[in-house]
């Protein structure tokens, strides 16, 4: 029985009919070994009994036609574009396919060639026609179901040639070893590895194809989960953490002093976190909750557990503005909270000491703070990357909270862990609504707590896509009216991803235009990435204090900015933003009990299909999880495990949406195998495949995280 690694060692030139020339073509597709070839799955299948006849296709309908080329003509149009006209017949009728700027089609589609043409049927000068249809060369395969391989024409190969080589390869490979325990295969009614590869390439029926796909999907997902689960278990084994005492009364006193009760979701999450804190295995948990769900409170409670036990807490935010803001709000929340003073006598109480460290701190403030952290005089420090990038030493770091993980790399997380002699417990907070399946995959080495409930009394934000100039005017009128009523507003400037500088300039222009135009007479403030740290803080402070009515800003306000009095947001050129980003932005309003609005400006005529779907989704729902699903659907899945395996996506067949239940099953099996007797080493074939296909078990999870969250 052959193993995949053996197939990976056989070059495609071993196959009959693959000479140097064809091998070059295959290389274009990233195929050099027989394994590469077998993992180059068909893009779709043509069921010959189901294809349309030219005569039956209705005008304006999309259809797939298998025909033979009768005649080819090349010429140039008046404006010098190349034009190839191909006349096709299938026995039921004639079809003319016109190709613009594809002069090479004349060589590809010589008279007598059989090909599949996929396109929309038009009528032109009384003739049935398709313009620039998709073409697949099929040759004379006789099977009922013909596999169509992706991009074969790009490589100068026909899908038929590929099919023939695959068939030969499958035949010569014979029976393949199955790395998955037979008990698991049977539990889920999966077909074996050999049948799966045959069924995906040369299915005899639709049901055979379905079964083959499921098996290969399971294998893909299992490999990923094995990497993640093993990483998680390794970490837990190797790492010596802190068993915090969670029985003290500080957290409870803190909660009693709040002007509101915790939500059930907050209680649940905190119970999960406290269980981790009490264990000697280091916590590595993701706290996921929609904007405004109250994550800060939960995180702060975790920090207080460390503080009560005589250790320190660190709270890291992705930006200066946010760090300052967290610092201010944490101070506010802890105002007046005291704990027993170890140094003093039994009854001495002292306040919880919170400090911040950002790039705004002066050198002397820094060295003072460094000293205080090292001696343990500071309980909680709030800051940005500066906290870990600099040589900050803690007396005893107990718990670290990282806000918005996707802006923090793995390295930073690792650096943070080095700050204590025992590994501190780490809580990662994210407002990015990650669908459950993606969370299991992307954050597969973390445990997850979810805040799936907003504090009561929030009114949902009314969201309008302003499609016309008249609707835009409505948005500005709403801003004016809200300011009149004593509320505040944000205006979000167009996103210019390519350049900070351009973005800043455009923000300045927006500010100038609005202050003399639509929003003349209101008190405007400006905030963008190029504003100095000091001025940034001044602007934020003025807005918080209500001295500014309208904050004109770039996405620097995307996360965490918390001004409950702000009730309107206007996003300019909203179609340029990603869905997740718009949802985050919108979360800046609707934080108080007053009704709130979010206007998304984008001229309907300029918005492309995806943008339209995004804006409509935002109008329809404010449920972050639903939006994340929409987003995933729009952007597709791509590569999860990082780009280090070039051209070899680890999710070729699996879809996190469509195969959701299989993600869960694969994860379960991964735990069984890793935790089972003998561990993963008892399954050497699986270990070998994971190493072969995913580049072993290493880190590099930055890029995959990036992919899912880049909008
Ligand atoms: P997140 O970080 O999840 O976006 P925050 O922690 O900033 O949310 O909380 C948003 C707002 O809700 C804050 O003003 C906070 O004080 C308030 N808040 C948090 N928990 C509750 C609760 N249980 N009831 C009412 N308000 C709450
Ligand atoms: Mg612990």
Short description:
With 711 residues, the protein is α/β, with parallel strands linked by helices. Helix content is 40%, strand content 18%. Among the domains are: 167 residues, Rossmann fold (3-Layer(aba) Sandwich), CATH 3.40.50.300; 161 residues, Rossmann fold (3-Layer(aba) Sandwich), CATH 3.40.50.300.
Structure explained in plain terms:
By secondary structure, the protein is an alpha/beta fold. Helices cover 40% and strands 18% of the residues. A hairpin with a 5-residue loop joins β2 (62-76) and β3. α7 packs across α8 (206-238) and α21 (609-620) packs antiparallel against α22. The relative contact order is 0.09. The structure holds adenosine-5'-diphosphate and magnesium ion. The site of adenosine-5'-diphosphate has 16 residues, from α11.
């Amino acid at each position: 029985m052959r193993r995949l690694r053996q197939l990976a060692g056989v070059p495609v030139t071993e196959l009959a009919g693959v000479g140097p020339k064809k091998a070059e073509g295959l290389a274009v597709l990233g195929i050099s070994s027989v394994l590469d070839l077998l993992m180059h799955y068909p893009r779709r299948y043509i069921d010959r009994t189901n294809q349309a006849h030219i005569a039956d296709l209705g005008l304006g309908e999309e259809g797939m036609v298998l025909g033979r080329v009768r005649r080819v003509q090349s010429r140039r149009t008046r404006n010098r574009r190349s034009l190839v006209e191909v006349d096709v017949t299938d026995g039921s009728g004639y079809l003319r396919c016109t190709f613009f700027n594809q002069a090479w089609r004349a060589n590809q589609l010589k008279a007598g060639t059989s090909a599949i043409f996929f396109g929309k049927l038009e009528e032109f000068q009384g003739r049935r026609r398709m313009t620039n249809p998709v073409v697949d060369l099929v040759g004379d395969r006789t099977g009922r179901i013909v596999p169509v391989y992706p991009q074969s024409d790009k490589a100068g190969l026909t899908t038929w040639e590929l099919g023939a080589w695959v068939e030969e390869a499958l035949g010569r490979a014979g029976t393949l070893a199955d790395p998955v325990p037979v008990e698991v295969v049977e539990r889920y009614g999966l077909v074996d590895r050999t049948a799966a590869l045959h069924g995906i390439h040369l299915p005899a029926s639709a049901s055979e194809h379905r079964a083959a796909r499921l098996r290969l999907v399971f294998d893909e997902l299992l490999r990923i989960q094995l990497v993640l689960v093993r990483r998680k278990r390794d970490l837990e084994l190797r790492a010596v953490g802190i068993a915090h005492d969670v029985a003290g009364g500080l957290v409870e006193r803190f909660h009693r002093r709040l002007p509101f009760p915790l939500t059930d979701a907050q209680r649940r999450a905190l119970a999960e976190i406290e269980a981790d804190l009490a264990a000697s295995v280091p916590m590595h948990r993701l706290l996921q909750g929609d904007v405004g769900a109250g994550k800060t409170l939960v995180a702060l409670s975790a920090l207080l557990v460390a503080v009560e036990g005589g250790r320190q807490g660190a709270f890291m935010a992705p930006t200066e503005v946010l760090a300052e803001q967290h610092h201010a709000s944490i101070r506010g929340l802890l105002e007046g909270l005291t704990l027993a003073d170890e140094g003093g006598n039994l009854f001495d109480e002292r306040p919880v000491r919170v400090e911040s460290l950002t790039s705004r701190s002066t050198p002397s403030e820094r060295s003072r703070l460094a000293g205080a952290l090292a001696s343990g005089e500071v309980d909680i420090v709030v800051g940005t990357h500066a906290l870990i990038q600099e040589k900050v030493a803690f007396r005893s770091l107990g718990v670290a909270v990282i806000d918005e993980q996707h802006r923090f790399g793995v390295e930073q997380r690792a650096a943070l862990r080095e700050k204590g002699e025992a590994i501190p417990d780490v809580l990662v907070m994210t407002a990015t609504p990650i669908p459950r399946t993606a969370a299991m995959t992307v954050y597969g080495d973390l445990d997850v707590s979810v805040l799936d409930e907003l504090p009561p009394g929030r009114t949902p934000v009314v969201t309008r896509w302003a499609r016309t100039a008249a609707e835009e005017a409505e948005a500005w009128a709403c801003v004016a009216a809200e300011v009149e009523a004593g509320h505040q507003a944000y205006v979000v400037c167009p996103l210019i991803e390519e350049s900070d500088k351009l973005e800043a300039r455009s923000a300045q222009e927006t500010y100038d235009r609005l202050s003399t135009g639509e929003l003349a007479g209101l008190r405007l403030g400006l905030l963008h990435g190029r504003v100095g740290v000091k001025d940034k803080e001044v602007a934020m402070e003025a807005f918080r204090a209500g001295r500014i009515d309208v904050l004109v800003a770039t996405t620097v306000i995307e996360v965490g900015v918390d001004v409950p009095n702000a009730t309107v947001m206007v996003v300019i050129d909203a179609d340029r933003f990603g869905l997740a980003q718009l949802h985050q932005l919108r979360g800046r309003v609707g934080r108080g009990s007053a009704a709130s609005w979010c206007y998304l400006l984008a001229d309907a005529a300029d918005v492309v299909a995806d943008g339209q779907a995004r804006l409509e989704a935002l109008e329809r729902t404010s449920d972050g999880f639903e939006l994340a699903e929409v987003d995933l659907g729009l952007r597709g899945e791509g590569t999860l495990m990082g780009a280090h395996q070039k051209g070899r996506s680890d999710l070729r067949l699996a879809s996190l949406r469509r195969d959701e239940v299989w993600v869960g099953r694969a994860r379960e099996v991964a735990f069984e195998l890793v935790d089972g007797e003998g561990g993963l080493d008892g399954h050497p074939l699986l270990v070998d495949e994971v190493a072969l296909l995913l580049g072993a078990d290493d880190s590099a999870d930055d890029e995959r995280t990036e992919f899912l969250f880049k909008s």
